[in-house]
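note to self — DONT lose this again. spent like an hour looking for the file last time. sequence + predicted structure for the chain T wanted, 273 res
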Amino acid sequence: MKKALRKPYRIKRKKSIFHNRLFWLGVLILVIAGTAFYYLFFSETFQVKKIIITGKDYNPPTASSHSQSEWAPRVSMEELELLIDKNLEKKISFFDTKNIFLVDFNQINKIVLANFPQIAKASFGRQLPDKIKIEIEERRPAAIFIYDKNYFLLDKEGIIFEKINEENETELLKIKNFTLNQDLKLGERVIEKEKVDQIMKINSGLINLNLKILEASLMTEKRLNLKTEEGWEIYFNLEKDLDWSLTQLKLVLEEKISPERYIDLRFEKLYYK
């Protein structure tokens, strides 16, 4: 009986990984990706080197448009640029970078508005390879807000944005809000926009009647007291038709009536004393 012959066992030598094309392809991809990553995020090419700040054009209002004084920019561009530059830097692993692609505009916008209440809105953009652009829109003073012997610039939105001395901005209408009971903080609303619009509309109408108003006091949500330059006062009901109230006032003044204390326009019938 013949025995089956076994084939001799041969050990296959494994090919070195360095002879594997896929290995070298992977290395090549990693090198390219690493080089691209470094170039995009750490090279000097895309590091922010310049911050360009611009402001929207603005035409100062005239006396007939709510008696605002001429507006001038109130934001220091140098201080704003320093603040933005300080918040550009990011850390990747152990490395600091001011890379243009990593700038967090939402975060910087919050920081800018918190530190500059004079700014109503800021828009950001990138100008490759190394510039960022910011366009700011400053708040414009519509009136002076008086609270607890302190004076603030008030914009048309009812927001206070700058504390001033009493003698400053004398041409602006002075407003008090006796319904307010809170600590004041720049950048916050102290009067509802609707109320500001009503006060400005009334003031504009009184200017057309040659009446100069020194101070407007919001006594309640619907009662507004106005102090004239002559010393007497006008009482308005803000829930009443303001056009009709101004017409009533015009008719009284055309009759050469000179009140000593007040004209009350809050009711259907006009009263004066």
